[in-house]
Structure formats: C-alpha cells, structure tokens
Amino acid sequence: MPPPGATPAIGVCMAGGGGGRALYCCVILERFLPECGFDVVDMIPVRRQNFEFKLPILDLTEEWLAI
User: Fold this and answer.
1) Residue 54: exposed, middle, or buried by beta-carbon count in 10 A (0-12, 13-18, 19+)?
2) Is residue 44 situated within a structural domain?
3) What is this structure's pTM?
4) pLDDT tens digit sequence for 7-28
5) Which range marks the domain in which residue 54 is found?
6) Residue 1 lies in a domain
C-alpha cells in the first residue's frame, strides 16, 4: 500500500533477452515501488520484439498520467 500523497508511477519492465521474465519483473517492481514512496498506476511488460510497438502506448500513458 503506497503512502498517502505518493507519486504516481508507471513501471516498464524489460528483463533478459527473450522477455520471458518480463512479467516476473513486473511483479517484483510492483511490490518494490510502493516501498520507495510511489503509487503504481500501471505495469507494462516489454520485450525486444515488441518494444517499438509499445512506445506509442507509453507516450499515451505518460500524457494520461500528466493530466
């Protein structure tokens, strides 16, 4: 549970070469970020193979978070 007034954060996880552990990375990061004072809004697993595809999604999520 994040502390009151925590800074919103989006986790982007790119683990290893094949991306098979990206979801595991998301789980670990989602547990760790609130300990650092962040409120996790979204976790986005990324692979080498879909990185270019997910960049526009990350841009849209950034714009939404800035509102």
Assistant:
1) middle
2) yes
3) 0.74
4) 888 898 887 676 678 888 999 9
5) 7-66
6) no
Would 34 be classed as within a structural domain?
yes
DSSP bridge partners of 40: 9
Using alpha carbons only, give the angle 56, 58, 62 rounded to the nearest 5 degrees: 115
46 contacts 12 by C-beta, under 8 angstroms: yes
Residues in the chain: 67
- 44 CB contacts (<8 Å, ≥6 apart)? 10, 11, 12, 13, 26, 54, 57, 58, 61
**Rg, C-alpha atoms of the chain:** 13
Q: What percent of the chain has pLDDT over 90?
A: 18
Separation between Cα atoms, residue 64 and residue 47, nearest integer Å: 23
Extract the tokens encoding 41: 């809004």
Q: Does residue 59 belong to any structural domain of this protein?
A: yes
